[in-house]
Amino acid sequence: MPLLRLLSTVPVVIKPSSKEIRSNTLNERSLETAIRQVHLDGLVVVEDVVPHEHIDILNKKMIADARQLQARGEDGPFNYNLGNIQQVAPPVAEYFYPDFGPRPKWTFCSANTAMPPVSNTAPPQRQPVHTDADFAHPAHPFALVVNVPLVCMTPRNGSTEIWLGTHNTAESPHRRASTASEPPVINKGSIVMCDLRLWHAGMLNWTDEVRVMLACIHFASWYRNPMQLEFCEDIKPILEAMDRKGMLELQTPVRWVSVDYALNTYLNRAFGNAYNFDQTP
Question: What is the pLDDT of residue 2?
Fold first, then answer.
């Protein structure tokens, strides 16, 4: 059995019941499975938890933004190559839905976007195999990345290649043939919870459509990450109302900005290694 698990390249998928979906809460068995797989594999998928109507509205806006960023050429916020963009979702109430949630600290909100090739002479490219925890970090879990694909992700449109179980190693897994991986199919409406330390690679998008995947990092409450979110002030009442009802379940250090400032600057945010996932001494 341990050998079979080590050779597995397919993440475990939890399919919540209608009762779990209505209550926005996993039952005890589902929660046990999620925790077990995050510890064993460094990743688990939970299907059918994000309403498609919310995804579709946000996806339409973020595709338009991605095309605008791609048009900047070498000056765009590319991760490793011109086929992979790091972009920020519009941080205003129009596109903010309280669908995502003891009280982890949410300090990073961005997206990974696999772009179609711009021409026949510029084929799509993949990222090198890497971990986002490329700094001195605790040997035990301290951060989860919550990914939300805005469309169904497949090997055809750039589903991320992952190496299950590599969150506990400092060695790049691509050097070992026994850990070969393949990009999984992740259905629309799913969330993917991934240990920040897991080795992965953004893949090629062979389609004509932009593939956007939100990426929110939730740090343990004891982990002293100094980053803050930057949201428009019209989101503040939404978070405050959720907190009063006991629905927030998150620490959200936020720098509040005006609507005009948010809309005029969010496409010019820093990207890549400009973000600090480390903690203060």
Answer: 43
